[in-house]
């Protein structure tokens, strides 16, 4: 099922929206219908820092109707080299409120739902259950595994974005069709640390790719990164597209086919 | 046979280069190549690539010519294969 198949009718665009999105509606196979699908869509972005913040910003610019942002904590000075939705005057105040303010400055029509908490076992099911697409930008694997589990259970596509130093990885997962995160990593990687080297331009680069994957999923445009892991190293500009496959013994998605996925 | 090995993320940091070439005796599996690489580069790499039983860590992704291989399936390497090692990353 595509994310928008359950939508009985698409919202119409206002004249203002037609004017704003005119240039992207010129993209072949997108058009006004694609724009209507974006307007009707709801996306969860977790978290909204150097990576997720740029995903949210691009989706807001593109005209997605509703964003749910889950990110706990207050803005810190060390956020400001990459977290472009955070501003210096907001240090010490909630990140999600800074994000909401910046997103609505860009797109006042956008509905922004803020959750001043990271994805956790208490909120994962309800957050994932509210959206058409999840874009996973969390820095810790337990959060990623929670979103993966719920996305698989509900058949909701999951865009997996990650970066480290000057490298980035991205793939798009759909239960029953592609590997899930646990197919790739059956346990939490022991060597990953909460703090990691990062340039904002690297997290922003993979964020733009992630936003485009979400747009493609919602609008039925192009070919998402199903079964492919795009790996980028900006130190020497090496880009690799690697094939990834399901693990038939996966504890989360093993045995699941597209027929088994329950409707949201 | 000649095998090109590519390293990414934390593995590349430990090894210090993005890629290197190994001349190996035939036959050689991907697992044997991993052991060979660990012997060359030492304890820090061992902790990244191998588990406590000295077997390839289940969280390391290994690709041969762009295809993911899984640890339980021995993969015989061929001359001029390209093997890519990738650690999980999660930064945002």
- Please give the largest β-sheet of chain A: 8 strands, mixed
Output the helix-strand order of chain A: HHHEHEHEHEHEEHHEE
Helix content, binned percent of chain A: 25-40%
Specify the structural class of chain A: alpha/beta
Radius of gyration of chain B, in angstroms, nearest whole number: 12 Å
Largest interface, Cβ cutoff 8 Å: A-B, 44 and 23 residues
Shape annotation of chain A: globular
Low-confidence stretches of chain B: none
Strand content of chain B: 25-35%
Total DSSP helices of chain A = 9
Overall average residue pLDDT of chain B: 92
Order of helices and strands of chain B: EHEHHEEE
Number of strands of chain A: 8
Question: How is the topology of this model organized?
Answer:
The complex is a heterodimer of chains A (264) and B (92).
Chain A: H1 15-20, H2 22-25, H3 31-40, E1 42-46, H4 52-62, E2 66-70, H5 95-106, E3 111-115, H6 124-129, E4 133-136, H7 141-154, E5 158-164, E6 167-173, H8 181-184, H9 200-219, E7 228-233, E8 238-243
Parallel strand pairs in A: 1-2, 1-4, 2-3, 4-5
Antiparallel strand pairs in A: 5-6, 6-7, 7-8
Helix pairs in contact in A: 4-5, 4-9
Chain B: E1 2-7, H1 9-15, E2 19-23, H2 30-41, H3 43-49, E3 61-64, E4 67-69, E5 82-86
Parallel strand pairs in B: 1-5
Antiparallel strand pairs in B: 1-2, 3-4, 3-5
What does this structure look like?
- The complex is a heterodimer of chains A (264) and B (92).
- Chain A is built from nine helices and eight strands.
- Chain A has helices spanning 15-20, 22-25, 31-40, 52-62, 95-106, 124-129, 141-154, 181-184, 200-219; strands spanning 42-46, 66-70, 111-115, 133-136, 158-164, 167-173, 228-233, 238-243.
- In chain A, strands 3-2-1-4-5-6-7-8 form an eight-stranded mixed sheet, sandwiched between helices.
- In chain A, strand 7 and strand 8 form a beta hairpin.
- Chain A starts with 14 loop residues before the first helix and ends in a 21-residue tail after the last strand.
- By secondary structure, chain B is α+β, with helices and mostly antiparallel strands.
- Chain B has helices at 9-15, 30-41, 43-49, and strands at 2-7, 19-23, 61-64, 67-69, 82-86.
- The termini of chain B are far apart.
- The model of chain B has no long low-confidence stretch (mean pLDDT 92).
- Chain A binds chain B through residues 47, 49-52, 137-141, 144, 161-165, 167-169, 184-192, 196, 198, 203, 229, 231, 233, 235-236, 238, 240-245, 247, and chain B through 8-10, 13, 18, 47-48, 58-59, 61, 63, 66-68, 70, 84, 86-92.
């Amino acid at each position: 099922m595509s994310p928008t198949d359950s939508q009985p009718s698409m919202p119409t665009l206002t004249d203002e929206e037609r004017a704003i999105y005119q240039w992207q509606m010129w993209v072949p196979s997108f058009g006004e219908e694609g724009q209507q699908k974006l307007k009707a869509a709801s996306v969860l972005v977790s978290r909204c820092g150097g990576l997720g913040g740029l995903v949210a910003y691009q989706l807001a610019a593109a005209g997605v109707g509703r964003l749910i942002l889950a990110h706990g904590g207050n803005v810190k000075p060390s956020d400001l080299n990459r977290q472009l939705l955070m501003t210096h005057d907001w240090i010490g105040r909630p990140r999600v409120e800074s994000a909401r303010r910046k997103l609505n400055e860009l797109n006042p029509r956008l509905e922004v739902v803020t959750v001043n908490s990271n994805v956790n076992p208490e909120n994962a099911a309800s957050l994932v259950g509210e959206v058409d697409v999840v874009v996973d930008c969390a820095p810790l694997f337990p959060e990623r595994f929670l979103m993966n589990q719920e996305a698989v259970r509900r058949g909701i596509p999951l865009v997996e974005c990650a970066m480290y130093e000057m490298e980035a990885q991205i793939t798009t997962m759909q239960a029953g069709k592609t590997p899930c995160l646990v197919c790739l990593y059956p346990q939490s990687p022991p060597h990953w640390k909460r703090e990691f080297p990062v340039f904002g331009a690297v997290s922003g680069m993979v964020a733009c790719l992630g936003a485009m994957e979400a747009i493609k999923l919602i609008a039925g445009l192009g070919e998402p990164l199903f079964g492919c892991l795009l790996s980028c190293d900006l130190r020497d500009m090496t880009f690799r597209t690697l094939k990834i496959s399901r693990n038939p013994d996966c504890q989360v998605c093993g045995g699941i086919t597209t027929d088994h996925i329950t409707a949201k | 046979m000649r095998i090109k090995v590519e390293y990414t993320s934390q593995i590349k940091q430990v090894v210090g280069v993005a890629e290197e070439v190994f001349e190996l005796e035939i036959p050689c599996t991907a697992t044997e190549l991993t052991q060979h690489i660990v012997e060359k580069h030492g304890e820090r790499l061992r902790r990244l690539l191998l588990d406590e039983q000295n077997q390839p860590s289940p969280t390391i992704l290994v690709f041969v010519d762009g295809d993911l291989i899984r640890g339980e399936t021995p993969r015989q390497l061929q001359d001029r294969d390209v093997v890519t090692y990738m650690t999980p990353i999660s930064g945002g």
